[in-house]
Structures are given as structure tokens and as C-alpha cells.
């Protein structure tokens, strides 16, 4: 039973159904305000951190100047609390005039001038979650057109203050309305999170046809408990979720909180590794102005980004949950490559875990192994050879694995199309 073959067949069956706006063929990457900045509107007392055009300009500067953009982190995304409490005279949403004095089109220009994209937030319902004007069914076309007129590139469409019937109408309607503007706008739907995230209430076939990404589950918080809770939910439901993802259509376990206050260094690597295995959108919610170098190194690790951005777009799986509290995750990649994550849920000391690639369903042969976080290359590992990895408590060891056969004997992918066009830190 060759596990890789089974998964490849699944990948082929999902290819045709993505939303037809040409966007997000690999998981979107960038920055999103919510987890770190919430609804801080107190610009008088907290001018650096309040939701204002200054915050988004600052983050755009950092993304453009500190090497993020080149790695794929291109979206600068606004969340709730950006708008005025009242629509304008023509019934259109408008930004808070004190906090966004230049207006959204000017902010979009600022972001675009730096080679970046601007995302905004709306909410299907009478109010946004924080009580700002929502988008009721009769406002959908107006709001889609306003966002397009402003030069917006992505919409996160939340679902507070609407019921299931309205959501069933509103999420597809917004998809149509965005398309009708003629401007390609990435579409993030919070719909499944409001319906428990699982069939039969959630129709993932339909979601893939109308949204580029969707929030399946609750909001992430700045804590390891929250990260673990999300990881468990996504992998406990992997049989349902895995096949719904693919180019242009992604499950979204929510933002990266690496560089904030709640995660240790090992836990930060774990979040990055597991989000890459899940083919998750990578939206950082942190302060790029003051980010420490450990967090930066993890978030800018080229091998883990290459795994996340793999062109085949197949979401990975948990293969094993050991009694020792070690879990093994696996994701197939283009070109017969793959990624493995060895994750420890222990809380005592580094655990020495012994296995072999054969035991993890790898085909007979030799493999080149690159350790993603220690950045060491192991030249040849046979499927039958036992190896031992030492995994820190709440940490990971992550491997990028290539079969040791010449590229021409593998699959017919063009080398230039591999790995999201990123240059890998090791030779293929
Ligand atoms: C709108 O949908 C059509 C048909 O699916 C597609 O060809 C077109 O590219 C879409 N346009 C935008 C702007 O999303
Ligand atoms: C949902 O809200 C609408 C009002 O927008 C109402 O007419 C409808 O009865 C509600 N449906 C349910 C199932 O509560
Ligand atoms: C789910 O959505 C798809 C595509 O819109 C549709 O063909 C299918 O009938 C739906 N499934 C259910 C169970 O409603």
C-alpha cells in the first residue's frame, strides 16, 4: 500500500473545482492585524498600535524592506474596526476619518507602490463582530464595488450577526459580486467557522467553488493552548478537510502568532512546521517593527516556506500518534519530494524517537534529507535504515525529503515551476 500514490490520486480529483479568479494558486502569505492589534482604536494614547493607516503603512514598509516580500509575504490585511460607524450619504462603507485621514484608495496606492497587496475586512450581517456597519444582503453589490473601486486585493468576509439562511445566500452572492467588479479580489470566507466546520452543515465542494480560503474553526489566540487546540481540530478531521484543499482553495487554521508573547522558540517552530504541512495561508499577526531575530529566522526559513508553497497544493496529514506522545505528520510535494514533521507533545525533556522511512510508508530506495530548522543535509538515507531524531518538548523536527534519483527519472515537472519559484537552500 503506497500512501504517496493514494494521495496523488486525491490531488488530481480536486484540481478542477477552485474559484475561477486565478488567485492564490499557492496559500496566500502576508500580514493580518487582528490577533495582535484587535480593536485598539485609541490612537490618542496608543498611536503606534491603534488600527489606523499608520499601522498598515508601517507594516507595508517592513514587508517591503526587511526581505518578507521576496519570500512571498505580500498581503497587508486590515481586519475589523477600520470603518466609520456610519455609511456615507450614498450608502457606502467609509473608513474612520480620524484614523484613516488619507482614505483607503491612498493606502492601497501606498501598499501597491511597494509591490504589495491590500486586504480588507467585511462582515455578512447587520454588524461586524465589533459592532461596525455590517454588509446585509442588500448591501453586497455596493460593498464589493466599493472595495474594487478602492483598489482592494483581498476580502475577509466574517459572519457575525447573520443567521444560517442569510449566510447560505450571502457568501455565494459576495463571490458573484466580487467577480462582477472585474477586479481579481481574493476571497476569504468565515462561513464554515459559523456552521461548525463540518459536513453536512458545511459543503466544502461549494466553498471551493466560491472562496479562495475559508476559516473552518475558532480564532487563534496568543497561546500554545490555542495553537494545540487548532492543530488537534484540523488533524482530527483531516479525512474531511484534506481533500477540500488545493490550488486556489485553502483551509485556513488562522494567523501565525510567531513573534508575539505566547509561544516559546520550540512552539514557534511547531506552529510554522504544522501550518506548512497543512498548506495553510501564512498570515503573520505580530509587530514586524520590533520582531526578534529568532522569530524572524523561523518565519523567513526558505525550506519551510517552500513546503508551504508547494505548487501541487496537497494538504498533508498526521500519519501517527504514538503512545510516547510523539506525532508524525507528512505532506507530499511536487517532484516526488515530501515533508515530514516529528512533533512532541511531551513536557519532560528532548525525546529520542527512532523509526525508518519504510515504517512511514516510504517506497524502497534512498533519500536525501534536509533538516529544515537545523539546516543540515543528510546525503543518503535508505528506507530500511533506522534513524533517531531528538525532539524537544512541544517542539518539532522537520525534514524535507527528496528521492535520490536524477530529476529526469521522477515526474515531468519543469524545474522553474517547483516550490513556488523559491530557490531552495540546498540543491535538488
Ligand atoms: C469571473 O468569473 C469568470 C468565470 O468563472 C472568470 O473567467 C473570470 O476570470 C472571473 N473574473 C474575476 C475578476 O474574478
Ligand atoms: C434569518 O434572518 C432573517 C432576517 O434577515 C429572517 O427573516 C429569517 O427568519 C431568519 N432565519 C432563521 C432560520 O432564523
Ligand atoms: C454541495 O455543493 C455542490 C456544488 O455547489 C453541489 O453540487 C452539491 O449538490 C452540494 N451538496 C450537498 C449535499 O448539498
TrEMBL record:
Record's keyword annotation contains Aminoacyl-tRNA synthetase: no
N-terminal signal peptide: 1-18
InterPro entries per UniProt: Aldolase_TIM, GH, Glyco_hydro_27, Glyco_hydro_27/36_CS, Glyco_hydro_b, Melibiase/NAGA_C
Cellular compartments annotated: Lysosome
Alphabetized UniProt keyword annotations: Disulfide bond, Glycoprotein, Glycosidase, Hydrolase, Lipid metabolism, Lysosome, Signal
Pfam families membership: Melibiase_2, Melibiase_2_C
Protein name from the UniProt record: Alpha-galactosidase
Biological source species: Conger conger
Amino acid at each position: 500500500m503506497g500512501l504517496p500514490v493514494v494521495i496523488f490520486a486525491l490531488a488530481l480529483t480536486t484540481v478542477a473545482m477552485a474559484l475561477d479568479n486565478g488567485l492564490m494558486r499557492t496559500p496566500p502569505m502576508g500580514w493580518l492585524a487582528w490577533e495582535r492589534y484587535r480593536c485598539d482604536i485609541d490612537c490618542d494614547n496608543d498611536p503606534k498600535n491603534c488600527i489606523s493607516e499608520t499601522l498598515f503603512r508601517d507594516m507595508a514598509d517592513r514587508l517591503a524592506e526587511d526581505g518578507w516580500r521576496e519570500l512571498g509575504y505580500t498581503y497587508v490585511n486590515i481586519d475589523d474596526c477600520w470603518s466609520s460607524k456610519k455609511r456615507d450619504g450614498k450608502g457606502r462603507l467609509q473608513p474612520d476619518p480620524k484614523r484613516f485621514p488619507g482614505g483607503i484608495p491612498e493606502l492601497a496606492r501606498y501598499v501597491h507602490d511597494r509591490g504589495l497587496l491590500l486586504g480588507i475586512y467585511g462582515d455578512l450581517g447587520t454588524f461586524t463582530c465589533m459592532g461596525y456597519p455590517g454588509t446585509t444582503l442588500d448591501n453586497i453589490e455596493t460593498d464589493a464595488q466599493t472595495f474594487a473601486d478602492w483598489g482592494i486585493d483581498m476580502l475577509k468576509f466574517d459572519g457575525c450577526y447573520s443567521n444560517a439562511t442569510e449566510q447560505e445566500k450571502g457568501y455565494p452572492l459576495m463571490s458573484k459580486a466580487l467577480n462582477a467588479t472585474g477586479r481579481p479580489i481574493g476571497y476569504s470566507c468565515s462561513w464554515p467557522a459559523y456552521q461548525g466546520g463540518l459536513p453536512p452543515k458545511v459543503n466544502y465542494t461549494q466553498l471551493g467553488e466560491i472562496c479562495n480560503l475559508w476559516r473552518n474553526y475558532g480564532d487563534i489566540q496568543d497561546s500554545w493552548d490555542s495553537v494545540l487546540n487548532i492543530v488537534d481540530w484540523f488533524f482530527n478531521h483531516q479525512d474531511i478537510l484534506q481533500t477540500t484543499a488545493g490550488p486556489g482553495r485553502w483551509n485556513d487554521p488562522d494567523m501565525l502568532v510567531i513573534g508575539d508573547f505566547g509561544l516559546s522558540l520550540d512552539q514557534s517552530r511547531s506552529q510554522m512546521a504544522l501550518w506548512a504541512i497543512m498548506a495553510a495561508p501564512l498570515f503573520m499577526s505580530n509587530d514586524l517593527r520590533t520582531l526578534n531575530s529568532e522569530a524572524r529566522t523561523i518565519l523567513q526559513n526558505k525550506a519551510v516556506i517552500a513546503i508551504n508553497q508547494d505548487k501541487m497544493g496537497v494538504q498533508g496529514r498526521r500519519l501517527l500518534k504514538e503512545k510516547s506522545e510523539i506525532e508524525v505528520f507528512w505532506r507530499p510535494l511536487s517532484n516526488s519530494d515530501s515533508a515530514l514533521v516529528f512533533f512532541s507533545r511531551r513536557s519532560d525533556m528532548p525525546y529520542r524517537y527512532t523509526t525508518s522511512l519504510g515504517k512511514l510508508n516510504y517506497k524502497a530506495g534512498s533519500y536525501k534529507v534536509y533538516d529544515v530548522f537545523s539546516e543540515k543535509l543528510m546525503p543518503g538515507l535508505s528506507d530500511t535504515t533506522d534513524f533517531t531524531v531528538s525532539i524537544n518538548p512541544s517542539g518539532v523536527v522537520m525534514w524535507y525529503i527528496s528521492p535520490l534519483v536524477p530529476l529526469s527519472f521522477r515526474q515531468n515537472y519543469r524545474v522553474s515551476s517547483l516550490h513556488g519559484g523559491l530557490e531552495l537552500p540546498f540543491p535538488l
